[in-house]
Amino acid sequence: MLLAYTEKVRVLLTDMEQEETAIHQAAQLAAEAIAKGGILHCFGAGHSHMIGEELFFRAGGLVPVRPVWIDELLPQHGALRSMEAERKNGWEAIFTEQLDLRPEDVMIVVSTTGRNPAPLAAVRAAKAAGVPVIGITSVKASAETKPRGDAGMRLYEAADVVIDTHVPPGDAVLQDERLDVRFAPVSTVAATTAGHAVAAETVRLLLDWGEEAPVLLSSNIDGADEWNERLIRRWETRIPELRRGGHT
């Protein structure tokens, strides 16, 4: 099944090349934020939380990225619990209270369907603080759903910049006549690609503007600790997760 899966991923990533303009627009927001001393918050519930984890403290990635981790929304603290929590109303006040959102920041919200209350609450909390929102979502998968609870609208309708992952409804891309459901999901591959593409374009823009591009070195490269420590000291006040835990 390896070749079947990689072919589906190859087609998906080719489709995502249509998002070059959106990637540039998102990177423009991110680069402007970093140049002003702001940070990039990244929120996703369920498996989407992994995108923030992937962008955070990543060799070759941007240092000023703060993952939004709230235990109740993380599957490692109970998969069914996190699924139910994402569908609950009332998250906006929690995001507002727990996140240090400032107008110079950017919020990245990741959700394949973008229909549940939690990701939309993150959008509203950010906008209330004057923070622009980048949505990473599947427009096709989302368009086939209705907003749940107090979501009000779907992520692709609410974000300032939308990066379409082109993930099919249901996420899975392979099938077998002996099984009634599809299998082999692709949303994490697509969303991670989108996130790293935004980060890469952000680096390019910062360099074009004559700004420092705060990129982390692999800790397994000699001399990396000194390089990274300088950047961590610069951003650790805004991103406490760099040295200790954050959120709840």
From TrEMBL:
Per its UniProt record, what InterPro entries does this chain match? RpiR-like_SIS, SIS_dom, SIS_dom_sf, SIS_GmhA/DiaA_subfam
Q: Which SUPFAM superfamilies match?
A: SIS domain (SSF53697)
Q: Which domain of life is it from?
A: Bacteria
Q: Where is the SIS domain?
A: 30-208
The biological process GO terms on file are:
carbohydrate derivative metabolic process
Q: Please provide, alphabetically and separated by semicolons, the GO molecular function terms listed in this UniProt record.
A: carbohydrate derivative binding
Identify the PROSITE patterns for this entry: SIS
What is this protein's name? SIS domain-containing protein
Source organism: Alkalicoccus luteus
